[in-house]
Amino acid sequence: MRQDLRVAAYAVCVRDGEVLLARWVARDGTKRWTLPGGGMDHGEEPVRTVVREVEEETGYLAEPTALLGIDSIRRNRPRRLRAPGDFQGLRIVYEARITGGELRHETGGSTDRAAWHPLAAVPGLTRVALVDIGLDLWRERPPVGRSRLTGQQDV
User: Fold this and answer.
1) 31-34/37-39 β-pairing
2) CA 112, CA 108: separation in Å to the nearest integer?
3) Half-sphere exposure of 74 (CA within 13 A, CB side)
4) Residue 36: exposed, middle, or buried by beta-carbon count in 10 A (0-12, 13-18, 19+)?
5) How far apart are CA 23 and CA 36, in angstroms?
6) How far is CA 75 from CA 18, 23, 54, 61, in A?
7) How far, in Å, CA of 51 to CA of 45, rounded?
């Protein structure tokens, strides 16, 4: 069984009672809201990853202000024309503030839309569990950086 480890960095950007989200498009066309962020390039530092990904997915310049935590997911995934794969993802979650840029949608990437959503409206959104985990980390600021929601995620 092939083993894959991916590391990604995500931002929780909250201002004026709203959170910035990007709409992720799955391979099957399913669309769900997620935190802006994504995979680290080899040799890239996580802080640079989150700044780059926020700009790519939303058009905004972001400044990480705090490390909120690290979330770990593990999935057994079938691989096309190959043996099944054992996937593990480490998702580094930062709090970040917007310092410039202008809201725009990503083209040709893994997301197709970016928008601010009222925090109170988040439970009604079609979203990945990372949104809830990131907001839980942002609200609770657990000392070891592990959300109480970890282990309940779907993507």
Assistant:
1) unpaired
2) 8
3) 3
4) buried
5) 9
6) 31, 22, 25, 32
7) 10
> What gap in Å lies between CA 29 and CA 38, rounded to an integer?
18
Structure tokens at 144: 């070891």
Give the N- to C-terminal CA distance of the chain in Å, as an integer: 21
Q: What sign has the CA pseudo-torsion 26, 104, 49, 91?
A: negative
**Tens digits of residue pLDDT in 29-77:** 999 999 999 999 999 999 999 999 999 999 999 999 999 999 998 887 6
DSSP string, 131-145: HHHHHHHHHH--TTS
**Helix/strand/coil for 100:** strand
The tokens of 139 are what?
A: 């609200």
* R_g (Cα) of the chain, nearest Å: 15
- Give the 3-state secondary structure of residue 53: helix
pTM: 0.89
Percent helix / strand / coil, the chain, rounded to 5 = 20, 45, 35
Give dist(CA 149, CA 5) in Å, integer: 21
Give the closest residue to 63 by CA, choosing from 12, 114, 135: 12
- β-pair partners for 118: 18
